[in-house]
Amino acid sequence: xxxxxxxxxxxxxxxxxxxxxxxxxxxxxxxxxxxxxxxxxxxxxxxxxxxxxxxxxxxxxxxxxxxxxxxxxxxxxxxxxxxxxxxxxxxxxxxxxxxxxxxxxxxxxxxxxxxxxxxxxxxxxxxxxxxxxxxxxxxxxxxxxxxxxxxxxxxxxxxxxxxxxxxxxxxxxxxxxxxxxxxxxxxxxxxxxxxxxxxxxxxxxxxxxxxxxxxxxxxxxxxxxxxxxxxxxxxxxxxxxxxxxxxxxxxxxxxxxxxxxxxxxxxxxxxxxxxxxxxxxxxxxxxxxx
Amino acid sequence: xxxxxxxxxxxxxxxxxxxxxxxxxxxxxxxxxxxxxxxxxxxxxxxxxxxxxxxxxxxxxxxxxxxxxxxxxxxxxxxxxxxxxxxxxxxxxxxxxxxxxxxxxxxxxxxxxxxxxxxxxxxxxxxxxxxxxxxxxxxxxxxxxxxxxxxxxxxxxxxxxxxxxxxxxxxxxxxxxxxxxxxxxxxxxxxxxxxxxxxxxxxxxxxxxxxxxxxxxxxxxxxxxxxxxxxxxxxxxxxxxxxxxxxxxxxxxxxxxxxxxxxxxxxxxxxxxxxxxxxxxxxxxxxxxx
Lengths: 290, 290
Prior knowledge:
Two copies of one chain form a homodimer.
Chain A (H helix, E strand, L loop, with lengths): L9 E5 L3 H13 L4 E5 L3 H9 L5 E2 L10 E4 L3 H14 L5 E4 L5 H6 L9 E6 L20 E5 L6 H13 L3 E5 L1 H29 L3 H7 L2 H7 L6 H10 L1 H23 L3 H11 L2 H5 L4
Helix pairs in contact in A: 6-10
């Protein structure tokens, strides 16, 4: 069978943690002829990725003129800083994709770059609360959504190769404006990370005796607080880049909590009931999400 | 082998939803000689429980003088209202246990009852976001914690039977004062339900176009908002009974969110990073929880 990479053989993964490493695993499995080169600021990360067989070789940015495909999966502030340099260094036929959780600043960083048409901006909505090469797993992207922004700014041939690759690893594409992406993703992803971190903080602050938390905490608590295990290195730049949207969602969330508390303080438990009943509707919305 | 029920044959389950139904399943599997009688306000629930083989027979409160064991798994306001009547009706040898998520009001409701020593107050910390007989599953309690309150107020023989039963279905016992239970459980269970309901509400309010939520929402969002599927019929009385503790946790949670928002507004992303880094510590705390 023709590989999912449409003949793109030399693949450079800049960042080989949860997302970059999982992409590398899927690509290598589905298209064994590719050579995956890993690039990272940290030598230890490269060695770990090699030991885990996520990459075939170590490389540096000075090698990417040989790349058919460059996959950028690093914190979003690093992407904004590095993307113009990456485009400077690639050849005319190279496809560059990023996997950042914000899209506006990243698209803006290369909007006037002469090689803008070599870049496809995307956000594969997949992940776990873990990070680093050891977090990479097979089939992380299977059945997940890949939000693609400004697809019209990417060269036709490279669009085609990218879509074939990401369909090949099991994703469904959705197309969106970067500004709309950042606004909606603040609600369905960024806010839930903050709610989870602050829930974890509230409980840790109160419960100095951790044995008690451990013994009394249910799987429900574990589920709600799971995202508080996420990497601050990755999430701080996301909150910074998407500051205005995230603050707006936080305000609405805080107001809803304040209102719920007021209903309880006023002993209006009929309204408390109704708040929950109305929100149960989330069941139908979530039915299609794993 | 001797059954987990220590010869208690006639078991009456008052309430046969997620908790009562799952207990009935485990007991029947581990001690097939028992007869499980179901009691519910709703005939439809009884019929469903019969069809699902959760119970062997339908019964009413007037039958419980024949009970060896009565398991009360109904909303906590109904438990407070009904528990004195249940104790009125049982025989001298009957063991009564409840499974409510609050303990102070329930213990208080029978503190002076002449049959107080027939009652064991407990809170098996297990569940899912589903409810009703169809939510009952095998081994829901395996490896989970069972908080037992005021154990010293239960007759020795009945303590022994209860502990043998709940150890038999795989639970580990922890002993706590009802006031301490209600205070701690507000943090590790009740608060996370509200954070989840309000997160669901915030997103639903904003995202009228549900298809967009569905497509962009990640498994992380699904995990954080999972508890917003929970039953308002069960949770409203819990929040009412544990009002003061829950309001206290909500205040602390809201303050932490407001502070996080202020850090973002002030562009103090070093502090944002630190907040998350410090809370990552939840990883170690959660390691033992499924």
